[in-house]
Structure formats: structure tokens, C-alpha cells
Amino acid sequence: MNPNIIEIAYIVAAALFILGIKGLSKPKTAVRGNQLAASGMLVAIVVTLLNSSVVSYEWIVAGAIVGAIIGATLAVKIQMTAMPQLIAALNGFGGGASLAVAAAEFIKSQPASGTLAQLTDHAVGGGMGTFAMIATGAAVFIGAVTLTGSFVAFAKLQELIGGQPKGFPGMKAVTAILLIGSISIIGYLTVDPTQTQLFWVMVAAAFIMGILLVMPIGGADMPVVIALLNSYSGIAAAAAGFVMGNSVLIIAGSLVGASGIILTQIMCKAMNRSLTNVLFGVMAEAGEAMDADEVYAGKVKASSPEEVAMLLETARRVVIVPGFGLAMAQAQHAVRDLGDSLEARGIEVEYAIHPVAGRMPGHMNVLLAEAEVPYDKLKEMDDINPTFEQTDVVIVIGANDVTNPMAREDKGSPIYGMPILNVDKAKTVVVVKRSLSAGFAGLPNPLFAKDNTLMLFGDGKTAILELTKSLSD
Amino acid sequence: MDISIIHVTLFVLAIFLGIELITKVPPTLHTPLMSGSNAISGVTLVGAILAAGHGGNETLINVLGFMAVALATINVVGGFMVTNRMLAMFKRKD
Description:
Distance between the termini of chain B: 52 Å
GO molecular function (chain B): NADP binding; proton-translocating NAD(P)+ transhydrogenase activity
Oligomer: heterodimer
Largest sheet of chain B: none
Number of strands of chain A: 6
Order of helices and strands of chain B: HHHH
Main location (chain B): membrane
Number of domains of chain A: 3
Order of helices and strands of chain A: HHHHHHHHHHHHHHEHHEHEHEHEEH
Strand content of chain A: 5-15%
Function (chain B): The transhydrogenation between NADH and NADP is coupled to respiration and ATP hydrolysis and functions as a proton pump across the membrane.
Organism (chain B): Pseudomaricurvus hydrocarbonicus
GO cellular component, one term (chain B): plasma membrane
Number of strands of chain B: 0
Distance between the termini of chain A: 72 Å
């Protein structure tokens, strides 16, 4: 096929990706946006298959069949509560794909396969040119870090390994050495691009670095990590685009890279922490300073579903605050039923969504959408915070740190300055929780001991079901 | 002018465009945005097809090409399908 036609088709594909992301700016246009992006992908794939340098199809077909089966199965079977794990895995696969593409180009460019090398613009028989080598190094390095880093994130989210930060003395130094070593190898390869062994050493170093980067990050910071790995997978794709000299790869990769960076920033801001602070964990050590017994002693009031139901009967406005516990308990449908029966009594019901509630950006919104809660009832933190004073009852389900008033009041607290949902300003706060155990931040929550707080101990789903039942009795 | 310069230009402009586009996506759609952008980053499939279809018989390149196609296809197929599944839930109550 004429190379110019291929390039034009790639620009069309890139335009469809851009229109697709634009569609995601409103829930109403989002489905169409996703379809536009998918059709852009189809255009890009079809013209690539017609490219004259593609001469054999058996490996392509085999890979596509395997990938399509796995991808479709994952997409259909995955539970909405497990979405963070799926995104983590997809980030890793994206990184792995860019790694494999760039590595294949590197091997192709080696003198041993000289005749093949002429097939690409960059290869010059004696190895890669400087620009192509730097791009290859970047794609391989970032791709490998994304692959193993996402694997660790997946294992933490799936609870194959514990969510708490893990590390060993001198870990940061090891990470730094791996980083400097990898950059030095890429630098050396630009001078002598035939050193394949060094190339694989760099890949191994990047694999280890990916693991070391994510291991020390705790469960509470997973939204940041997922967003960041999302960004890495995009940047790796863009770097692979430089290697192949392919415009659509560069554009799409940069769009995804930018998307991940912005989500990372939003998450960091919502936790009042810098990215460096999240990645290199200053917080983990400061957590145990406050004594939980002292905060709670004699002040925590346990309640019953019947008592809470009586409160709700006289309420005019109720706000529900979901957290990761809602996902853990699969309580989204039970919550919607409770909301429905409250509304049937003429009570105003809204949902307060903290930006880092759950384990990935927007996680709570998806869960509540699954339970068919209309999205205009989901309120962002800044919109709902001024309304808590006019709220009769707030029901907090499995959320902890995002409601902790210490973030507002205690200057010595590790979470001081983090924007929170001011649920304690409401007339009554009902906290549905298994026990008084601390949240991800490892801190006691003085909210539980406030005069206007009632604790409803138990599994989130059971407690909400009992509450709805008491309300209808 | 070197073609690489044009590619760097594309990269820089696309980053700025990406930032403009993404800041307009509301928080309620951030999860579908992530899965959707995962699907878009599966465009590495284009590079993977070129690597896997080069027609040589060097095993390492073929295996890498196969892996790249398989992984990128998981992203493309899985990403777009799961995004569609999520977005359909948002649309339902219009």
C-alpha cells in the first residue's frame, strides 16, 4: 500500500482517538466516544496489516487470537469491585507490549540479521542510530518497569500479597543504582549498539526496579500508583512509536501518558501529598504516634439497625459516604435499595464521593453506577462539603481516613491538610464498620468518638440490608 | 529536516492536547477513562504487527513479536470492551 495513504490513515486514527477521549467528558457522549476510539484502532490495525513490510501472518494471527480470547474473557467476567486489579493488569500488559516491540526492533537491527535490518528506516546494519537507540532504551526500560510494577500492584490489590508497605534497608539506594546503571547502559549502547548482552542486563535491571518501586507503597496509595503506571504505559507506547517511526503510536501514547499524569496529580492533591512523598513513603513511619484507646475510651456509642432506622424516619436529608469497605462487602446494590426506600419516604438522598475513595480514581462512581444510582446524585467533595450542616444523617460505609477530622484539626497528624468530607458537621453520623480498626493511614479516627456519631458494627452489606429492613418494618 | 524532529514535535503537541482533553473529563468517569486510555495505548499493536510480520525466521524476534501482539490485543479488546460495559451502566438512567 502507498506509504502516504498509510500515514493519512494513521492521522485519521489519531483524530478518532482524540474525539473518543473528548466524548468521555460527559456521561451522555461517553459510550459514543469509546466507540469512536475503537473504530480509530480498527483503522490503524487494518492499514498496518496492509503495510508492505508485513509479509507473514502466522505469528500475528496466533498472537491476536490468544490476546482477543484473554481480553474478551477478562472484560466480560470481571466484577466491578475488582476493576482496580484489571486496570493494573492492563497497564502491565501495555508496558510489556511496548517492551517486546522495542526489543524485537533492537534484535532486528543487529548485524547478524543484516538483511532484515534494511526493512526499517532506522537500522543501519551495524546496529541502531543514536536517536533510535535512545528511544528503544526508553521504551524497553519504561515498558519493563511498568510490567513488573503493575504485576506487584495487581498482587497487592488482589491480596495475593499484603497491602502494607514492604522494603529492606538500603532499598532506595538499590533502586537508585539500578536507575543510574540502566541509563548508563542506554548511553553506552548509543556508542556501541551491538552489545546485546548489556541490553538484556538493562531489561533485567528494569524488571527489578519495577518491583522495588511498587513494593514499598501501601494500599491507601494504590490510586496514585495505578494512575502513574497508566501514564508509564502510555509513555512506553510513545517511545515505541519513536523506535518504529510511527506517528499514530506517538500521538496515542502521548495522550495516554498525559492522562495518567493528570490523574496522578489529582490523586496526590486529594491526599495533600507530593508524588515523591507517595513514592518514597514518608507517611508510613509517622502513623503510630497516636494511641487509639485514648481516643476512643468510653466515648464510642454502638448502635443497632433499629435505632438508626428510627433516626432515618425523621430525617429530611441523608448523605451516604462510600469507601473501599463498600467494594469489599459488595454492598453497592444494598446501598441503592436503602437509598430507594429513603427516597420513597420523601427523604433527599445524595452520595458524597471523595477523590481517593476506593482504590482507583472514580472507583466508587462505577460501583454505584452498576447498582443503577443516577450519576447526578453522586456529588464531588467540594460540592457536598458545604451541605453537611443541613444534613440530618450521614451514613459512612467503609470509609475511614477520608472522614478523619484530624486532617482538619490536628497539625501534628500525618494526614493534616488532606481535604476530607466534613461529615462530622451533620446532625448525626452513622459509621458502618466491622470494628474500630484503623484505616489505610494507620490512624485512629476521632470521628468515631464524637457526640453525634453512632457506630453500626458489622459487615457493610449485612448492616445496610438490616437497616433497610428495619426501616420498612 | 530529520523525520525524528517531526516525531518529537508530534509528541510534544500531543502531550499538551492530552492535558487539555483530560482535564475536562469529570471525576465520575475517571475509571472508564483509565480503561479506555489503556485500550488506546494498546495501539502498540501497530508496532507489534510490524515486528511479528517481518517474515524472518529468527526465533527470538518472532517470539517477541508474538508476545507483543498478544499483550497489545488483550489491551485493545479487553480495554474497549470493559470500558463499554462500564459506560453502558452510566448511560442507563438517562
